[in-house]
Structures are given as structure tokens and as C-alpha cells.
Amino acid sequence: MAKEKKLVEAITSMEEDFAQWYTDVVKKAELIDYSAVKGCMIIKPAGYALWENIQKELDRRFKETGVENVYMPMFIPESLLEKEKDHVEGFAPEVAWVTHGGANPLQERLCVRPTSETLFCDFYKNLIQSYRDLPKLYNQWCSVVRWEKETRPFLRSREFLWQEGHTAHATAEDAQERTIQMLNVYADFCEDFLAIPVIRGQKTEKEKFAGAEETYTIEALMHDGKALQSGTSHNFGDGFAKAFGIQYTDRENKLTYVHQTSWGLSTRLIGAIIMVHGDDSGLVLPPKLAPVQVMVIPVQMQKEGVLEKAGEVRSRLEKVCRTKLDSSDKSPGWKFSEQEMRGIPLRVELGPKDIEAGSCVVVRRDTREKIKVSLDELETEIPKLLETMQKDMYERALAHRDSHIYDAHNFAELEEAAENKPGFIRGMWCGSQECEDRIKEELAVTSRCIPFHDKEQISRTCVCCGKEAHTLVYWGKAY
Amino acid sequence: MAKEKKLVEAITSMEEDFAQWYTDVVKKAELIDYSAVKGCMIIKPAGYALWENIQKELDRRFKETGVENVYMPMFIPESLLEKEKDHVEGFAPEVAWVTHGGANPLQERLCVRPTSETLFCDFYKNLIQSYRDLPKLYNQWCSVVRWEKETRPFLRSREFLWQEGHTAHATAEDAQERTIQMLNVYADFCEDFLAIPVIRGQKTEKEKFAGAEETYTIEALMHDGKALQSGTSHNFGDGFAKAFGIQYTDRENKLTYVHQTSWGLSTRLIGAIIMVHGDDSGLVLPPKLAPVQVMVIPVQMQKEGVLEKAGEVRSRLEKVCRTKLDSSDKSPGWKFSEQEMRGIPLRVELGPKDIEAGSCVVVRRDTREKIKVSLDELETEIPKLLETMQKDMYERALAHRDSHIYDAHNFAELEEAAENKPGFIRGMWCGSQECEDRIKEELAVTSRCIPFHDKEQISRTCVCCGKEAHTLVYWGKAY
Q1: What pLDDT does residue B2 have?
Q2: Which residues 370-429 of B are in CB contact (within 8 Å) with A?
């Protein structure tokens, strides 16, 4: 009993200290562990299983659009990194440098890839000769390194896992279309699979990716009202192509530069899953993502026939969803806490009385609702409950997000919202970076995006300088 | 027509120059490309798709034995690498060192992992407290770096993809059992899935992994008679546990060291697939592995109804196997060459006459056999042909291997075989490293393994020194 208490006590409540709650969940749900390498995390089985499911589903969605996977070297020679001016300025300050191979100093330093635009460009330069070679739609799953000073599990670490897509197209229109297409793949994936609603939009000039012409983003709202950039898609135009000399012969036999895109999504998203859906008992996983969807927990296991029946229920459920049986010698209460901490969507409680009544008690992780289900209807009722839970989790996250969007018509209102109303703040923007800088410096709020689907002109003047403004921006504090 | 000729001409024949043939296939089948980073390769879509299928199948087999996936940092602090004496001696000379993060020198150098024993040990040290925590059966899929001087695509490169399993057990027996279990998983996988027969056996002391008590291996024979070590499994005993202090409280409440294993298999295996099955027309892929199993190629495509019928055949076959249709505007001959170069197991040729006769011509990649198949029986006949081809490929590789095993009873016979008979040489060994060293130096032949399933005493004396010998060793030249 003492041990059981410990598990629950160990979590700080969200209201008390959200940051500590996050760290507690990440550790107690056994998603990560700290490593001997400062700023790098160990992703444990429960955490990695989430990434595997994300990978599997996203990879399927990529391939449906014609994307193929490749693998590029993890090192970039310094001279290659330097080829595109904006890009190197953005990344050079935060890369790890390899200077020695064995005992010998290298002739040229290599950085561990922070992202692989330069490698793909160098590859495409030789690969692409004719319009027949286009488009190239390549992606890779790998880890990248950015030498961050402050790190937090999943949200910011020196090494993280991600995918990076890199495409080359014949025309500017094709590149733009692909940029938006992949942003939509990300957004649909977040909404359908992770039950996380996102705002789709464009980054301002200031917030763009180093070297991009345009950067698009999906922004999700965490439980504490902070935003998390959850995936980005970049249109490079022909900037990289010119820096690297990637030309093809078009149908008229003319040498032409390709147009390129890149798009990435990382283990950061696991942070979003925790912070959108989690509660004071731990993780809450959307059923489509959950590595284990149903945990069968026998009650009064020592009584004759209970464990046998529980095994039977597990076997039947395994055929319709990802099911496990906890037959360890821990107490049922302890098992309930563990299942809750790990965010397993449903638990099936089964004791002698249930068996006698020909039913079991199903408990939803999100609402804690207890539902009596006839043992005869397991195979139909459990998948239905999983489906309902997935839908409800999305609706709840959407309602939370929508109730945390505020309008600011002037600087005073923006200040008031930034200080007291965690969430997205809608405010008109004149387009000047000065205003963006001032808002960031004074209010610690940044432009999250210029949304695609919200073009309302809530006023005619910039929320910062009061000058004429036509662009609606979502502002917010962000991870 | 000139272009078509080029594709075929570009491959050197195996007999003429096996090494050049290998390089030609690797490039022409579009498996890899060279990169801007010396010794590192770009794995292109056709190559990466092989790795994806290997990964998927092997991962499934691992998980069936209770293995879970994790992800560890790619960096190892120098002090951590140095904790186990033999291990650091084995790896330090060939690691890449990171010395700077951004503009700042690091306080301690980090090496890019060449393998992750030390990281797993450091992790297990805190994770494992009680016998209840055992066994730990973790695996990771990642890339590793070894600063090799001479490199060849897939076979030896400075960075390669692999999986590394790391397990911790309560007893020496459990560790030994797991070591052999995983070797058998590798062997069965190679034989069932890749149609590559392997010799299962133990490495000699000299050939063991740095830090291991015992190393086990699977050895495959390439078409040129050289051996390729295709997967290894190591038993560490409690050596690493003592170096890292990994102790648990056993059932009697006594502090005890864990026993550990590790096992790895890499993209090197793609080299084996090429060199076991390939021929002078390119790659030959075993059907179970092949990303595309059937290529439908229309003949006289411009004739009415041909393309439509080909599309219909594709749609029907897609339901039973991985099928593509080549409807590009290249000539059929060109398409045949491409399909052969890429090693696609079957091609379905379909022209106006075939359609009229209600049949198609199926050509097997391995035997070139042309088989007339009625269009009514596609869904049953094609999968049957794939199955037969898989089986035949294994049998052919086995026959080739078995016909290249020679016995040597003394040094003269060993020398004669080493010089003139490419293959495995069976020879008794007294157990001294002196003999092993002499054989390696004078004949460029190494001990591949002490086989599990061949314990014949072909003589009573060592093939090298003539002293008493009880151990049969398979010797050979190796990649």
C-alpha cells in the first residue's frame, strides 16, 4: 500500500506547477530517462513505442503521396554547410563539430547534421539532369543534433529523432503545391491520429526557416495555454538550387533551376501529446496512437476461474484491438494507477462478481467513466468505446483550444492577454518586424502564424503600432 | 536503342572482375550513391526499401522473443567509453570525435557511437535494482560510425545502419541462452527471408568482439567464394557489469552482477544479398524481400486495349503480391533490362497476342524461364511462382556453398585450397593463436568460425602446426 501511494504522490499537479507535472509524467510514465550525455535523452520502450506508431502512420501517409525513403550521411563537411548563406548563419552556431577520426585530425571539420538541406542539394546536383528526373520526393527518418543550451525532454534536446522530407520540382508552382500538401498531411495526421487540433498557417519573415522563401507551420495549444510548433514545411524557391547549381534540361532543352521544399516533424510531437491530453494521473493516449489500447486487470485474482476468464477476455480482445493482461502479483489498485499513468485508453476490470453476472467493468482513461459491458458484446463494444474516446479527446482538445483564443485590438489589450490569458491571441499586424520585435521583447509573445483559415480583419490597425494593418496574426507564448 | 545498350554494357561480368561487377550493380541498380563525405554512402530509394523490409521482418521476429525498442544518444563521453578496458582498446582507434558544440570547445570529448554497450551499461546501472527488473531485452535501430580507411558500399563504410540488441540477465545461463537464441533468429531470418544459407558457429578468441566472453557468428558464402560475416551475437558474462557496477538484489536479497549480451546485424547484409544472388544482368532479389515482386510490362502498348488490360492485371495482382506496372514511354526491351537490373523477381509480359490468347508470359528473374500463364489463373499462379522462386534461390545458394567447402588435412593442403579453391576450408585447429596468426599472415585466410552443426574430426592434428587438435574450424577469405 505504501508503494502504491508513492506512485500517485510522485506527480505534481498541473495546476500547482505545469513544468514539474510534465517532467513527472515523462519520467513516471517511463517515456524517457536522462543519459550520461548532457542534453541528450534516452527514449525508453514506452516512449519509443509512441514514436514507432507515429512513424508507421506518417510514413504510410507520405508514401501515399509518392514519397520515397532514403538515407543520407550524418556528417556535413563545413564547406558544404556554408554554401547557402542564410542557412549556415542559422545553423552554424548550434552544430556539433567532428574534428578527429581515430587519432588523426580531419582535413576538414564535419558537423553532425542539424538538418540535411545541404546534403540533399549536393546529391540532387548530380542526380537531376532532365525534366524526366523530376519531381524527386525523398524523405529520411533519422536523428539530428542541435547544440541547445537549455533542454527539456522531447521539447528541446541536443539530439532528437525526426523525419525530413526534401523535394525538387520543375516549377515554382509544383514546389508551392507540395509545400502545402505536406503541411496538410501533418495537420490531418495530428487531428485524425493524435486527436490534436492545429492551426495551419504561414510564418512571418522573422520566424522563417534559415534559407526558406516561405515557411508554413501547424501550431497546437498545450493545456497550459502555450503554443507548440508541431511541424513545418518550407518552400525554398530556387535559392538553394542557385547556391548549389541544381539545374535540369527542360522540355525546350533549356537549363533551368529546380525549385525545392523541405518539411519536418520530430519527437517533439510526443511533448504535445503529453501536454494536450495528459492529466494529474499521468498520460492519456489517443486510442489510435496507443501501443496498448486495453489493459485487462483481474480483481481477486486468487479466486478460482478469475485469471482464466481474464486470459480468455484478453485472447478475444487481441483479435480486435491491442490488448494486454496484467497478471503480475501487484494489487489491482496499483495496476489501475499504472495503467492510468501510462495513459492506456481503456481498462477492463474483471472479478468474481463480474464473471457471475456475465459482464465486466470498462473504465475510460480520459473521463474515468465506468461502463458495464456484457462479456458477450466485448468484440463490438470495446472497439466502439475506443472510437468514441478518440473522437471525444479531439473534441475536448478543440474546445479547450477554442476557448483560449482571445482578440486584442491594441497594445493594451495585447499586454493584458499576454499577461493574464494563456492561449492564442488574435491581433492585426502591419507587417513590420519592428512591431514583432517589440511584442516579443516586451510581452514575451511571438507571432505563431498567419492562419490559412481565419482571414477575419478584426480591426484596421496594427495591434502594436496602430498603423494600417491587413494581416491577422495568431500570437502566443510558445515552447 | 543506343540508350538501351548502354544500360547492359555498363556492367562488368562477374567472371571478369567480381569487385567491379559488385560496384556496377550497386550503382546501376540504384542502391547507393557516393556522397560529399568520404567513406559515407547515400542509400537511394531502391537500397533503402531493402533495408526497410529487412527491418520490418527482423523487428517482428525480435518482438516475438520479447524484445523492446529504445533509442540511446548517439554520443559517448570519452570517460564512459574507457570504462571497459578491452572494449575501448578495440574501438578507440576508429571513432569520430566531437570536440566542439557551436563555437565552444567541449569540456569532455564525445565520440559518435561505434556501438552502444557503454551507454546501455550506464543506463542499466540505474534501471536495474532487483531481480524483478530482469531480464531487460532492449534493441535499437540506428546508425553507427567507424572511421575505416578502406570503404566499399554496404560492406564497409564509415557510417552504416544497423540494429544493436543489448540484454541484461540474472544468470550466466540466461545470458548464454539469449546469445544463442538471437544468433538463431539471425540465421533463420537469413535462410527463410533472404534465401541465404549460413554457417552458425563460434568465433575464436582472436576474432571475438572487443570485451566479449564469447562471440557467435553466422557466415555466408558469396558467389566469388569469399565469406561474409552476416550477424554476430556476444555473451559478455559479467565483465561489463563489473566495470560499470550493474548489480541487482536477487531473491535471497544478495547483491549480484547481471550477465549481458549484445547482438547486431547491419546494412552489410545487403552486400550479401547482392553477392549471393546477383548475376551478370544485375540484382536478383528473393521474393520475400523484394519491394516490388512483379513488374507488369505491356508490349505494343500503343495497340488498343493493351494498356487497359495491363492495368487490369496490375490491379488484380496487387491484391496478392507487391506489383507495379511500367507504363512509361520506354521500349519493352529497355523495361526488361531495368526490371532485370533491379532484381524484380517476376515480370509479366502482356501484348495483343497474349490478350487474344487469354494468357501472359511470366519470366522468372533467376532462371529466365518463360512461363505461359492463363489470365484466369493469375492470382493463384503468380504467388506460387514467387514461392517456388524463393525456395529455388535458397537451394541454389546452398548447393553453391556446399560445393565450395574443401577439406585440408595439413598446411600444404590448406595452402593449395587458400590459393586455388575459393570457399570455406575445413581444417582442424589446435587452439593456439600462433597458428591462427600464421595462417592469416601467410595465406590471407582467417578462422571464420567453429561450426555448431559440424563437429566432424577430419583429422587428429592441427592443419597448421601438426600438433594434436580437436576443434574443426571453417577457414576462409572474408569481406
Answers
A1: 42
A2: none
Alpha-carbon distance of B258 to B134, in angstroms, equals 9
pLDDT (tens digit per residue) in A351-375: 999 999 999 999 999 999 999 999 9
Closest CA to B362 of B379, B345, B348, B378: B348
Examine the pLDDT at A8 and tell me if it is beyond 70: no
Which among A182, A168, A162, A191 is positioned nearest to A248, based on CA atoms? Answer: A168
pLDDT digits (tens, 9 = 90+) for A134-188: 999 999 999 999 999 999 999 999 999 999 999 999 999 999 999 999 999 999 9
User: Can you read off the three cell numbers belonging to residue B192?
Assistant: 527463410
What percent helix, strand, coil does chain B show, rounded to 5? 40, 30, 30
DSSP class of B131: G
Partner residue facing B72 (CB), from A42, A77, A138 = A42
B53-62 pLDDT per residue, tens: 999 999 999 9
CB A38 within 8 A of CB A145: no
Low-confidence ranges of chain B (pLDDT < 70): 1-9
CA nearest to A323, candidates A338, A308, A313: A313
Chain A contact for B126 (CB, 8 A cutoff): yes
Check CB contact under 8 Å for B73 and A119: no
Task: Give the per-residue pLDDT at B8.
Answer: 54
Residue A213 sits at the chain B interface (C-beta within 8 Å): no
What is the pTM (predicted TM-score) of this model? 0.96
Structure confidence at residue A3 (pLDDT): 46
- Cα separation, B441 vs B435, whole angstroms: 10
Q: Which residues of A touch B54 (CB under 8 A)?
A: none
Residue holding cell 527514449? A43
pLDDT of A6 reads 53
CB–CB contact B102 A122 (8 Å): no
Which residues in chain B touch residue A98, judged by CB atoms under 8 angstroms apart?
Answer: 96-99, 112
Which pLDDT value is given to residue B293? 98
Pick among A97, A129, A133, A338 to test the B interface (most B CBs inside 10 A): A97
Neighbour tally for B251: CB within 10 Å: 10
Q: Which of B385, B371, B463, B453 has its CA nearest to residue B425?
A: B463
Residue A402 has pLDDT above 50, yes or no: yes
- The single-letter code of the amino acid at A432 is S
Phi and psi torsions of B101, nearest 5°: -110, 110
The predicted pLDDT at position A84 comes to 87
Contact list, B48 vs chain A (CB under 8 Å) = 68-71
Are B147 and B157 spatial neighbours (Cβ–Cβ below 8 Å)?
Answer: no
Q: Is B426 helix (H, G, I), strand (E, B) or coil?
A: strand
